[in-house]
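Box S2. Input/output pair 1.
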Amino acid sequence: MSNPFISKKILSLPFSASNIALHSLLLVDNGLTVQQSLSSVFSRYKSLLNQKTLNLTTELVYGYLRTEPRIDFILSFFLKKPSSIPRQMHLLLGLSVYSLLFLNNVKQYSTVYTAVDSVRFLYGARLAGVANAVLRSVQRNFDLLKHIDFYNKNSCSQIDALSLFYGIPLWVVKNWLDDYGFDNCCSLMQRSFLRPWRCFRVNALHPDAKLIYNQLLDSGGISIASWGVAFAPGSMPVEVNRIPIAQLHSDGVISYQSAGSQIALHMLHLDRWAQPVWDVCAGFGGKTFALLEQGIPVRVCTDISLSRLSALPLECRRLHLTQPVVSLADASHPPISRWYGHILVDAPCSGLGVLARRPDIRRRSNNLLGNYVASQKSILSACLSILQPGMQLAYITCTLRKQENDSLIKSLLYKKTDIQLLFQWQTPHDHPWLEGMYGVLLAKK
């Protein structure tokens, strides 16, 4: 597999988790999501990968992106001319800094040697010496770099220091400060900085659903919503009752779905819906499958992305579910004038609630924020226009930003007097690990 963004010399680097992670980050640089980039590199190196290398590569990529603002600041502190070093070297150093500061199970001498060797291979002895000096400085200042006092001392303000320490772009911090205040902003930064929890959804239609659900709980999981089980980082079991997790997944007994998504469906009481449901921003179909497994009649799934929709038929077969009608359609321009059922809008959003699981979102520009609000308004207006009296619309986002959530709904209700607010919910800011979600249930009078 070739890629126009990756040079032959990068592909010729010695095989190691950090060099595969470099490959992945270069793909993120060129517009791929973190999931897409890892999928691409794992496909390329699949004949060489073992589980240990795969896990370490994943941790390096996600971890680097979660802490990138802090790491960039550290590199700028120890490099005389940080803007003069090649991008690939910058990423190699960044990956190594992440490993030195946060990965206790990786030998520090191995981290330094591998990075310096890779820089030497790419750029020669002089820059290899620079790399060695920087990483040795990080090792010597380990305790200092782990404490927020270093960032307070070398930043313009407390907010700048917190932004660097927790790896949250300043524009995100300012949004949270304006919307939720200082204490809640700090809670959200701390939560977004940590490794995310993993969560399964047990297929409620499977004959062994209750048994598997209880066995997952007995394996250290925490109950989430109706059929979810969440595991702290590093605690997810490899097997349950001698059955590998991978087999349970392939057999359609369990699926991966974030705890926040499952709780949002549960809190909005969508398991009570009895009328046909149209999922107008279905994406890969996670919420559709969760509803179908609970017997909710999702009849139609649409999205503007063919690549996302293409996964739905395969997932329906894996989960032994009756497939809804699947079609390309723009939710802001529905292809019909009336829908005699409920509507689920899992809206495109800025994603500020899932920064731990989607760390590449931190690289987005705040210039895009207005686009999300405009799109959400357009989708809600169009879908409410085809909703019939007595039917309901659920609006869900995975962001924590008032302009895309409660302020947007408040503005909509002011203009549309035929729409009633039934229920509004948002994940608590002080929850130590739950991703940020918002949901509202509306009804047409």
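Box S3. Input/output pair 2.
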Amino acid sequence: MKKFLLIFSVLTLSVCVKSNAQVKKVLADKIVAQVGDKIVLYSDIINLISDAKRQGQEAQLPPNPDCVFLEGQLIQKALTLQAEKDSLPVTDEDVDAQIDNKIRYYLSQFGTKEIIEEIAGKTIYQMKEDFRPAIREQMLADQMRKKILENVKITPTEVKAFYDKIPKDSLSYYESEVEVSQIILSPKAAPEVEEYVSSQLYEYKRQVEAGTKRFDQLAKLYSEDPGSKDNGGEYNMNRNDKNVDPTFLSAAFKLKEGQISPVIKSKFGLHIIQMVSRNGDDAKLRHILKIPPVTDGEIQAALKKLDSIRSQVLNRTLTFGEAVNKYSDEENSKFNSGALQGRDGSTYITIDQIEDKDLVLLIKDLKPGEYSKPMAYEERGLKKARVVFLKTRTNPHRENLKEDYNKIAQRALELKKQQKLERWFREHLPDYFISIDKEYAGCQVLGDWFRYASKN
């Protein structure tokens, strides 16, 4: 029964899975495990794995994801049972607030209530009702975990002892890392320019529907999407993919095979989409992207606005984070004050993780704490303008207590919490009725759970 913290972190996915957009029906559902009166269904495990894949986490899944996700469910059920036994407070108001937060998150990802309902195949009200039991259980489990770990602290002496046990040849080597934030403005093309580009796309649509041109040929000639242009504008797509612009996704999955959409506007520009083939939530489609051009005057206006914003930050009448929240055109950046994030979600990133080479050059001459002058740049064919803030920069080095104390302390604390959780489970699992389907007998991570189950 190892790696409790890792497995517990996986549990946060379960609320999304049980209450997310439509999931494919499992042909033969059954109860695969039980802790007390809490059951785990086969569909729970399958849906957890499917949802992780839809969220682009397939590469991070272990070789035996069904075993790991089942243990995650068993952990959650045990914690929930104990939370109920200890009468830990989770009110209807707490659950409603969490549900509202989740709906707001989906709105930030997909844009409108109508798009969410179309993708989910149910109304917002129905989604909220579906969320309720899973969110209540998750909140109870979180409360119990918090109670178990509330007094777990780490001292400098313990951090040093943890560090001293690490073999010197196993200490991490850190490349130079930076913390970088941006305020980004996206100048808008004039309405008459958008109208002209839209008329071009409608002409392509007319030619294909009249049979005088093929969609893929037009895409190769005129599309401004470098990722699909040479392939005739073709993409394979899943309707639950959160990495795709929601307006594009919604328009695409309204189409029948062979049908072409009207002109739609996404954050990348204007499109027409052709549905090639579809199988449930999976589809093959083509699109032609045209980006309405912005003038030098519109770029200069954006740079002038950024210069004014930068002055307010320098004069301390506005913090950089407040400026991002108030002015940036990048919606997702408003949740983290415009900070770039690495693959692990950290704001500390190495230079090689920054794909934007213009940004690399821009921060090269900045000192920590400095703000760049407003600069124009291009991203995926879109002309934008930005101000960059270099918060910190570290030099390449071997991990040590002086420069990396916080990272080491966090790892030491997580280990201490893990050990505390393991002790708690060893003490409490014998008190619970546990049943696990013999189909999972080969799962090594479930060894302790099977041992306790055999005593019932």
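Caption for Box S3: The chain has a mean pLDDT of 87. The chain has three domains: 4-161+401-453, 174-188+295-397, 191-290.
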